[in-house]
Amino acid sequence: MRDRIVIALLLGLALTTMAAFMGVNLRGNIALALELRGIRLAALVTVAIAIALSTVTFQTITGNRILTPSIMGLDALYQFGQAALVFGLGGLGYVSLSPLLKFGAETAALMLLAMIILRPALKSQMDLTRMLLAGVIIGALFRSMTSLIARLIDPQEFAVAQRAMVANFSSPMIDLLLIAVLVTVIAGGFLLSRRHLLDIAALGRDTAIGLGVTWNRTVMIHLLVVSLLVAVSTALVGPVTFLGLLVTALAERLTVSRRHDTLFAVAILLGVIVLVGGQTLLQHGLGQASTLSVVVDFIGGLVFILLLFARRIR
Amino acid sequence: MIEIKSVSLVREGQRVLDSIDLLLPRGGLTALVGPNGAGKSTLLSLAARLLPLQDGSVTIDGLPVESTPGKLLAKKIAILRQDSGPPPRVSVRDMVGFGRFPHSGGRMTAQDRTMVEEALARFELEALANRSLDRLSGGQRQRVMVAMTYCQDTDYILLDEPLNNLDMYHARQLMLELRRLVDETGRTIVIVLHDINHASASADRIIAMKNGMIAADGTPETVMRTEVLEAIYGFRVPVIETNGMRLALQYASCAP
User: Which residue ranges traverse the bilayer (chain A) (predicted)?
Assistant: First the structure.
């Protein structure tokens, strides 16, 4: 009952922020402005959905409430794949690839790397501290390797490629929007159809196996779906390290039920409110004083530290 | 029938199980006893596919555990582990309901709900039904886990030290319930016990393990003997006969 009220309130708030994003300070060619804003709104909402779904699922299959795909360095993996592609094809070759092909290749690279690196860790049931450490190392390693590759490439070529690589909340990758929405809808539908299975998986490996869950296969499939969603959000707006943690930690506090339909809904709505609301506020209230990812990471980082210190780590 | 054939397990160079052969026919309450580290929990975990088999085979009604689909096995055999991690923030009713997952796939029918309510009543959990699991005491949580295992409604039930944390009353109630399940519904229950007198009072068969091997196997009358218990536990345990039961007096002041 309380959860329904929370969802209704958040839904109202999310719709309000979306209306504000579309409507505040509309000037000039209104039809064109609405179209541009609509496209960006769609990108932000897609990112919110992708991050919320991937973080909740990742936390369920890893059995913890603190690690998220981006803390484990998955988005750094994606960017490494991007840089490796530029290196392999050269700047011009990279830019002239169709966005779809680029996204496909980068996503495949991410899924492959995630399988190779994360699956052994998940299978051997590493404890939280070690997973956290592994994540920090994976993230740092791949970020450094990305900048190493950037240095190896001819600077001029890299400058060409960088324009195609760097995305942020103010200028999301619009060419990818359609495929991103499609992937998010399919992955989201898949996760929603497996919500009961995820409820069981949240009870831990042994209990889940006892109840008939094929554990290793389940972990692998969901890890792949998580990588897919991370690829979507990183491709659209670049890495946002702490947004996932922020929305799942808040969702956990706002809801009573641990059921995944509720968790998914609340986390997605919170993501929309933070991203769309934050972007509106920064653009119109604070005159682009900062970028959204900096603000989100600042607040999310604080939540991360609070979670680590304020309560027993699960 | 659960058929365990020459099952061995080596962990970090230590031989945990040494070529175990065991037949557990349908029906009956079997108690698994023995000192700490004898391999009892490991054997149960292997039988219920929580651990991968290294050597040997386990079949349940002819189905090999390592290759049968998990869902099918979950309708045949249920296991309650000793340590299932930190308690989730789930209500008691929902947790017991999770036991229906192999049958319902998460979409509970009216029949599933009736079964959940029956389990709550059977294990005296109605008053706690809406409480969250992380707000319960260890013993209450243990009873919820047993109720969930019961709700899975399987022919075979493996319980690893379900009496942990239970007070005298609830331990007795649980043993009575298990006995009733065996007698009235023909289920097969295997239970790891440390209190050998509970085993003597309720079980049809006692299997004692020591150092990864089976040290004794038989009815309470044959196992509950001073010389048998001495071979298992390494000290002389006086055994008395009272009310038609054999009881071990393992207590500190009971000198043999």
Answer: 43-64, 76-97, 103-122, 131-153, 173-192, 221-251, 263-282, 288-310
- What CATH number is attached to the domain comprising A80? 1.10.3470.10
Give me A99's structure tokens.
């966005």
Could you tell me the residue ranges of all domains in chain B? 2-219
ipTM value, please give it: 0.91
pLDDT per residue over B152-199, tens digit each?
999 999 999 999 889 999 999 999 999 999 999 999 999 999 999 999
Range of the domain at A50: 2-310
- SS3 state at B147: helix
Integer CA distances (angstroms), A134 to A73, A129, A191, A238, B33, in order: 9, 9, 26, 22, 41
Residue A305: name the closest of A237, A244, A242, A259 by CA: A242
CA distance to partner chain B, nearest, from residue A122 (Å): 15
- Say what the alpha-carbon torsion angle B126, B128, B129, B132 is, to the nearest 10 degrees: -170
What is the pLDDT averaged over residues A220-243? 88
Alpha-carbon distance of B126 to B144, in angstroms, equals 11
Question: Which one of B60, B90, B92, B142 makes the best mutation probe of the A interface by having the most chain A beta carbons within 10 Å?
Answer: B90
CA distance A137 to chain B (A): 27
Q: A63 CB near a chain B CB, below 8 Å? A: yes
**Nearest-by-Cβ selection for B71 from A203, A204, A212:** A212
Nearest to A210 among B69, B78, B89 (CB): B78
The answer to whether the CB atoms of A212 and B101 lie below 8 A apart is yes
Q: How far is CA B158 from the centre of its chain?
A: 4
Closest CA to A108 of A223, A231, A226: A231
Residues of A in contact with B49 (CB under 8 A): 209
pLDDT in tens, A156-206: 777 766 666 666 676 777 778 888 999 999 999 999 999 999 999 999 888
| Residues near B8 by beta carbon (within 8 Å), at least 6 away in sequence | B15, B17, B18, B19, B20, B54, B55, B56
pLDDT < 50: residue spans in chain B? none
Q: Which residues contact B33 (CB under 8 A, 6 or more apart)?
A: B40, B192, B193, B194, B196, B199, B206, B207, B208, B209, B232
- Which among A203, A210, A213 has CB closest to B48? A210
Class level of CATH domain B2-219:
alpha beta
